[in-house]
Automatic annotation (TrEMBL):
It is a multi-pass membrane protein. Its main location: membrane. The keyword Cell membrane applies. The chain crosses the membrane at residues 12-31, 38-55, 75-96, 108-137, 143-161. Pfam families: MreD (PF04093). It is found in: Cell membrane. GO terms for biological process: regulation of cell shape. The lineage of its organism: Bacteria, Pseudomonadati, Pseudomonadota, Alphaproteobacteria, Rhodospirillales. Belongs to the MreD family. The keyword Lipid metabolism does not apply. Keywords: Cell membrane, Cell shape, Membrane, Transmembrane, Transmembrane helix. This is Rod shape-determining protein MreD.
């Protein structure tokens, strides 16, 4: 039986929610902070979004979503265009090739796996920026960004899990 126009529209909107939510989170994350003495390093929000959806619902955030999220991040953060896209798409690739590992695993295992993935992503992004711009990111800023990314994951994962529940709930 073919879905009605309304059902098709609702399904399309539901499929776009993770990407739109990720865009909103990236926009919030790059908002200027004026806290005196604040180390200018923030969590890699795009990485957290792509990682969560790749682990739990890879069909809702494909490579195109990761690519577009990376381009937006690069534009907003004045990073060389394509660097964040490369990192996010490689993150998706790593998670999707290891998908069997993630299925049915408890939160602590996926958080531990994020620690490994985020470390690689942080180092890859820093290396790409250094090669393309000649600017070497301070180790303290890298460590702060990595640490904030890991600390923020449980909060975002909880919110994403709630969103995932609402997306899969019958209309």
């Amino acid at each position: 039986m073919r879905p009605t126009l309304w059902q098709s529209l609702v399904q399309t909107v539901r499929r776009l929610v993770p990407f739109v939510l990720s865009v909103v989170l990236v926009l919030v994350a790059v908002a200027p902070m004026t806290t005196p003495g604040f180390l200018r390093a923030g969590p890699m929000i795009g990485l957290l979004c792509v990682y969560y959806w790749a682990v739990h619902r890879p069909d809702l955030m494909g490579y195109l979503g990761g690519f577009l999220l990376g381009i937006l991040t690069d534009i907003l953060m004045s990073t060389p265009l394509g660097v964040t896209s490369l990192v996010l798409m490689l993150t998706q690739y790593v998670v999707l090739t290891q998908y069997r590992f993630f299925v049915g695993k408890p939160f602590l295992i996926t958080w531990w796996a994020l620690a490994l993935v985020a470390l690689g992503a942080t180092l890859l992004k820093a290396l790409a920026v250094a090669v393309l711009t000649g600017y070497v990111v301070a180790p303290g800023a890298l460590a702060a960004s990595y640490g904030l990314t890991l600390l923020l994951y449980p909060i975002l994962a909880w919110g994403f899990a709630r969103t995932h529940f609402l997306l899969t709930k019958e209309s």
